[in-house]
Fold:
Amino acid sequence: MHIPLAQRLLTVDEYKKMAEAGILTEDERVELLDGKIIEMSPAGNRHAAMVKRLNALFNQLLGGNAIISIQDPLMVDPHSMPEPDVAILKFRADYYETGLPTSSDALLVIEVADSSLEKDQKVKSSIYSAAGIPEYWIINLEQNEVEVYREPFGREYLRKEVLHSGSRLSLSPWNLEVEVATFFFE
Structure:
């Protein structure tokens, strides 16, 4: 028999205090999603290489027009502080030293998925959409494809596109395009 139990969800402030108190250590790969502390999947070689490739590509394409944030916290709401693999942020002269970036600073969020695909498609997509992040990509390493989510509405994106090698991907805020094949070694 399943009995629904009331849950006490954590806030971002409580989560930060747990880290400051040493309850959560720097070695733990966790993030706060919808008020729950969730373990992050370990990053394998291919995942780590893709994050490095994305970092190099966006630094080359965008230069000083945006800040490329790699696996850093993003404050999206009072109960969620994910650490996306890549976040393209509005440029700020202090590089967010005076405060963590929020969802209103994020122009594009990217998750690299191998073992985390279902979580990225269902949980993180819902969180990013609810926060109003205009564009969200999942780089699916298993299928060598890019899932592009646009037009956030409530807890879902209204437009989803799956792109493969041979397709071009538009970086709308900067009027740029990139070949999907650029992301993958095939």
